[in-house]
Design brief:
This protein has 153 residues and is mainly beta. 14% of the residues lie in helices and 42% in strands. Strand 1 and strand 2 form a beta hairpin.
Length: 153
């Protein structure tokens, strides 16, 4: 008898959870913005003593030219502290940073040509200008240029 109740209860739950609505749903517009709204850099290293990955955000002054699709960054390496020692700080260079950017809602970004990938340790010192294609949800895209104006320690 208990099995029958369990089966009936399971069938009842399955019918309540499932939906019959297949049509009449509101069509939402696809986002059409393909902009870069911010660009950031960080340095990553593994701390053997604490057995963990560490991250130090670089201080960035970013200028975004939406008319010409150019992002210009001035990067400053922060001062040393308890975790970010002078020895680690001395290893920071444009050739071992992680770059990432904020983009429009529902858009995707990809490097163009041999521009460094974002989100991974990459070499940003080999090119004066790097290009990134931002594609909006509706398929519209823009190619943005990244310029690193200065790198200060």
């Amino acid at each position: 008898m208990k099995k029958i109740y369990n089966v009936l209860f399971s069938l009842f739950l399955m019918t309540m959870i499932s939906s019959c609505l297949k049509a009449g749903l509101e069509e939402l517009p696809a986002y059409e913005d393909a902009d870069i709204t911010n660009f950031k850099f960080e340095y990553r290293w593994f701390d053997d003593a604490k057995n963990r990955m560490c991250v130090e955000q670089m201080t960035i002054k970013t200028k975004i030219d939406k008319e010409n699709l150019i992002v210009t960054c001035d990067i400053t390496v922060p001062k040393a502290d308890d975790d970010f020692t002078n020895e680690i700080r001395d290893d920071v260079s444009l050739s071992n940073l992680v770059g990432y950017c904020d983009i429009s809602t529902a858009a995707v970004v990809a490097p163009v040509g041999n521009s460094p990938k974002l989100g991974e340790i990459q070499d940003f010192s080999t090119q004066d200008e790097m290009c990134y294609k931002v594609t909006a949800a509706n398929g519209y895209s823009k190619v943005w240029t990244l310029r690193i104006n200065s790198f200060k320690k």
